[in-house]
Design a protein that fits this description.
It contains 13 helices and no strands. 56% of the residues lie in helices and 0% in strands. The termini are far apart.
Amino acid sequence: MSHHGAEGLESGVVTNFKDRMTYSQYLDLDRVLKAQHPLSDPPHHDEMLFIIIHQTTELWFKLVIHELRAAISHIRHDRLEPSFKILARVKHIQAQLLDQWSVLATLTPSEYVQFRHVLGPSSGFQSAQFRTVEFLLGNKNRAMLDVHRHDPAAYAQLEADLHAPSLYDEFLAHLARRGMPVPDSVLKRDFSQPHTSHAGVIEIFRGIYENTGTNWDAYEMCEKLVDVDEQYALWRFRHMNVVWRVIGMKPGTGGTSGVNFLQKTVGIRFFPELWEVRTEIGPPTYGLPVRRQT
């Protein structure tokens, strides 16, 4: 009896890579796998975990940004259907980001305290890509730009995203183009400010949810947005709990109050009317007359 693989490689397997693209070259693995530089001296075993978790988080953020910009473009051109696949993908990326916290949670307080000092004032709070995701989804805050003044390119991009309509703003503008009565104060607002809930928008969403047959694509878009918002809320909550588990109530390395700061973010909703409309939705009629009991 032979062991698995003892017969050698299949005849079609490429082994000569002279002048040919390799897996490592395509993925630029030489740079990626040499980009981990622990600063603790002597190197603390768990610093590698800390670095790789945050690097992979930034890679996922890069993909989320790539996807959200595509979704925004589709909605701007009144193409809702292609954005459904994109937002479903974003939801699954968010699930990966959420699950990563369980890996970081294996870092105990006694382990982290041995190398935390090497971070200096650096903090995830300073992630330009994290801030970009927040801005694209509508959590606008001009004060957050100040953290990025040292990086002119990042600052310029964030300032542009601050003033641009968010994913939600574009969806509301799309609904207006379909003839729905989106209030002018919503359509023509200052996009550098966070969106605030409007009764008129709640009423539009109530109409969509109570008449799904004639608004199926808008109805599906609403649910895709709620998926993303809910996953983000779970991510914030898990972030707060992992930080609490690893550093307790100590302040954050970047100068925030740590857990107290994160607790304030847990209740944020990007798309408030999509949550509020749930209280208003009545029983479905499906276009049929309601039969009265006699």
